[in-house]
Amino acid sequence: MNSQTPYILDSSPVSYAIGSGALEYSERFLEKFPRIIVLVDENVAVHCLPVFQKRLPAVVISGIINIQAGEEKKNLEASKYIWSELTRMKVDRDALIVNLGGGVVSDIGGFTAATFKRGLQFINYPTTLLGMIDAAIGGKTGIDFGKYKNQVGLFVDPKSVVIDPIFLKTLDDKQLQSGFAELLKYALITDLDLWEMLKGIKYNQITEWNKIIVKAARDKIDIVKHDAFEKGIRRNLNFGHTIGHAFESFFLMKDRPVTHGLAIAAGMYCETYISSKKHGFGCDVVNEIVSMINLNFHHLDISHEQIPELFEIMMQDKKVRGGKLQFSLLKRLGKTVHNCEVDDELVKESLYFYIEKRACSEND
Ligand code: GLY
Q1: What is the pTM of this model?
Q2: pLDDT beneath 50, residues of the chain
């Protein structure tokens, strides 16, 4: 058994157990429920479910629902499958759904639980880095519909979130790198200490995952506690995402998908440049951030000729207001402002800065 003590936060309505030992600690969250149904995807079923069962031998699982892995499967078909399995198993409202997996599992699992018989309780057990520091926290649930991501869904809190870094061992390099982009984002937008811990390190050389995950998860909890419904400071989490989402969609449309993290890292590169121009911080800071991104992520293959296409995609973004792009931008390292209107010309300049791999110079 693991004797480490996780960080515990009993902040109503959600209880959190974060860090090594969280899995064992969570037994007390589960024992209150007469029936436990576990939702997994095909990869989690192989790599993570055995860990869950081994660490929690006293927990009786009444049913396992196994869905196909991947964002493209986060859809109505998969939701229907989950609802029909719950119906077949005669699940009632006393049951608990355990969402064991990454962001896709917590999104669709939360959505289907919250809508089945007007609401089943669920607990998120994230197994990816992205899930641990972001997707499992904050009550965003939903599915993709048509060609739009997260088009149908609702904000609904899990009963608990159990974040145990033990599952990081099951991740491949690509998934770890992808989650690392969001980790960098937390450091940049709100947590200078985290930035100091990460600076100059490659994602695949980190040894202190436990400390880092506890820190980043607490950063996110703190933000969503103050703004559950994304009316204000939760928008700060969009740093790097206005341009990053455009990169992500662009490559998806070309049938050359890139990970969310690679796209967001490129978005943060461009939006750091925009931040420096809007908020007047120096090139030393821009170059410090850009070199950390370059150390961890390769450059996306984008050319000047493709900029109009990227603009077209950006204008479809949920963050456009009155035909103007809205950004969450750095004011300085560790501090962010949301709802910043940015002229197209400056956005274009930032894309040149990225494409040409220029260093920031005070003479620009
Ligand atoms: N992933 C951004 C948010 O939870 O608001």
Answers
A1: 0.94
A2: 1
